Structure to design on (379 residues):
């Protein structure tokens, strides 16, 4: 009887796992001794990091999408039928259509979602770039913006750890290119006592902000937004006026995780080295879905997915564990519209951003084009 591998979620992490397993288990999959099924939420696969460029006219919407079926190996049984309930005791996943899928190994890759609705007034008063509709609205707002007070408001948790810095530096360059920087004031808010959670990144970014005349307001945990008065207020009692409010909204995990009692907030408790759900030997968790205290980023999902592929293939082929995940994360950081830097770190090595350069920006643009090879597990 075929070993059933069920992947819940069709984003980057789940896609890399599916394609990687098909490659490493080619003989077993072809013979029918291993079967792979993916439950996705949509027919299309979106390159989410590309949304950052849409408001500035640096990437077309059509460049963000591919058919999910064409991104996946042909041996993957792919269905657009999102999971509604996951029963890890019975090893059964029930979908929204009412179908049930049993499994021998489960990979939970349900990802995260933005929750501007969690903060009163945010949906009405703020712009963001974390979904296509938001990126479109932000693009329209930038097209008509003639200068004024810009507040860039960061909430946690959120995915892509460096996106708050990228949008701030890119906004500064955009206003300069538009000729309204001298009529504008940029204020960046962050919920802890520095401008980034990662201390080495904060120590690098703070003087960069100062050099570019970007103000910062730390210990700013957003309480509410008043869209009519154009103000944003923190739990600490600070109120800022704005003409344009750009936010990184708070994120949560998916509803299926909370409905299945798999983790508070939609984050699944995950063993940091094995990427197994805590207390499990056959349920892996990957990407944004984990509760690990590391960045929710595309590179994190990629490195985690590669680890899971190696271990699942090794378990099925040789009944042994292959390797542990070391917490590796690598992020390009746009420091404007034409320059960039990068950070990499793991569980034991802190990040150390280098001097920005145009060459690193070009590397980031090149990776934007190579993403689809990455999703196929070829990079």
């Amino acid at each position: 009887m075929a070993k059933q591998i069920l992947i819940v979620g069709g984003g980057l992490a789940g896609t890399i796992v599916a394609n990687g397993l098909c490659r490493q288990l080619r003989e077993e999959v072809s013979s029918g001794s291993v079967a792979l099924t993916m439950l996705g939420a949509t027919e299309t696969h979106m390159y989410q990091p590309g949304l950052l460029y849409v408001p500035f006219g640096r990437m077309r919407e059509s460049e963000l999408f591919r058919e999910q079926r064409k991104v996946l190996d042909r041996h993957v049984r792919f269905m657009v039928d999102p999971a509604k309930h996951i029963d890890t005791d019975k090893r059964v996943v029930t979908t929204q259509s009412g179908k049930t899928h049993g499994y021998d190994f489960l990979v939970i890759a349900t990802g995260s979602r933005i929750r501007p609705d969690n903060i009163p007034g945010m949906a009405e008063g703020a712009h963001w770039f974390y979904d296509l509709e938001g990126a479109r609205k932000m693009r329209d707002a930038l097209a008509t913006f003639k200068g004024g007070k810009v507040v860039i408001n960061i909430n946690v948790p959120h995915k892509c750890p460096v996106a708050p810095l990228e949008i701030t530096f890119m906004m500064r360059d955009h206003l300069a290119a538009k000729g309204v920087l001298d009529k504008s004031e940029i204020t960046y808010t962050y919920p802890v006592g520095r401008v980034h959670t990662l201390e080495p990144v904060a120590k690098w970014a703070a003087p960069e902000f100062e050099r570019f005349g970007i103000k910062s307001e730390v210990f700013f945990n957003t309480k509410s937004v008043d869209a009519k008065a154009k103000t944003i207020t923190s739990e600490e009692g600070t109120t800022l006026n704005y003409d344009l409010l750009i936010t990184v909204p708070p994120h949560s995990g998916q509803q299926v995780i909370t409905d299945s009692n798999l983790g508070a907030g939609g984050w699944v408790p995950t063993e940091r080295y094995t990427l197994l759900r805590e207390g499990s030997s056959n349920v892996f968790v990957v990407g944004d879905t984990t509760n690990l205290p590391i960045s929710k980023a595309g590179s994190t999902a990629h490195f985690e997915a590669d680890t899971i592929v190696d271990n699942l293939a090794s378990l099925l082929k040789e009944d042994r564990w292959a390797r542990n995940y070391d917490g590796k994360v690598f992020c390009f950081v746009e420091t404007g519209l034409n320059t960039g830097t990068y950070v990499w770190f793991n569980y034991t090595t802190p990040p150390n951003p280098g001097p920005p350069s145009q060459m690193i920006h070009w590397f980031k643009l090149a990776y934007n084009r190579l993403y689809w090879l990455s999703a196929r597990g070829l990079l």
About this structure: The radius of gyration is 21 Å.
